[in-house]
Design brief:
By secondary structure, this protein is mainly alpha-helical. About 60% of the residues lie in helices and about 0% in strands.
């Protein structure tokens, strides 16, 4: 039952979401194999370009609220007022 539900959920995911699932599965598998080999984090073995792409992918998943601080909030006078 769970297997079928998971298959249905996977069919609904886009490519980026599937990549994240694949990375998670790799992580879980490496955890179970950790007794025979040591796990090396992605950021240690990835190239700068791969790390940058991964960061951009992560940022693109963040919620976008379009709420920003007012110009007055950025004023030095407001930060250091006496």
């Amino acid at each position: 039952m769970l297997r079928e539900k998971l298959k249905q959920e996977l069919d609904r995911l886009n490519e980026e979401q599937l990549k994240k699932i694949a990375n998670f599965i790799t992580f879980i598998e490496s955890q179970s194999n950790q007794t025979t080999s040591s796990f090396v984090p992605f950021w240690l073995i990835a190239t700068p370009a791969e790390r940058a792409r991964d960061f951009r992918d992560w940022v693109s998943q963040l919620p976008t609220t379009f709420v920003s601080l007012s110009d007055e909030a950025f004023s030095r006078d407001r930060i250091y007022e006496e």
